[in-house]
Amino acid sequence: MSSTLDWFKSSYSAEQGECVEIAAAPAAVHIRDSKDTTRPALTVSPGTWTAFLPHAVTTRGPDGCPERSPRA
């Protein structure tokens, strides 16, 4: 599966950052750990991914990876 997908990291990820990578396909969005790409990816529907995005992180931590925004 993952060898035929076009994986990418967030533009907010630093070179040394340990973040996730995403590969979007027509029927699914695949998410994997960027520091161990041999492990199985998490696969969700495009609708689930779209619903998740508003809850995604918006700030970066000291390692350059995004981290959860504080709750208001």
Coarse shape: globular
Largest sheet: 4 strands, antiparallel
Strand order of the largest sheet: 1-2-3-4
* Cα Rg: 13 Å
First-residue to last-residue Cα separation: 40 Å
Spell the H/E element sequence. Answer: EEEEHEE
Number of strands: 6
List the defining traits of the structure above.
72 residues, mainly beta, two-stranded antiparallel sheet, 6 strands
How would you summarize the topology of this molecule?
Elements lengths: L7 E2 L10 E6 L2 E6 L8 E3 L1 H7 L6 E2 L5 E2 L5
Antiparallel strand pairs: 1-2, 2-3, 3-4, 5-6
Overview of the molecule:
The protein is mostly beta strands and 72 residues long. The protein has one helix at 46-52, and strands at 8-9, 20-25, 28-33, 42-44, 59-60, 66-67. The strands form 2 sheets. A 4-stranded antiparallel beta sheet has the order 1-2-3-4. A hairpin with a 2-residue loop joins strand 2 (20-25) and strand 3 (28-33). It is globular.
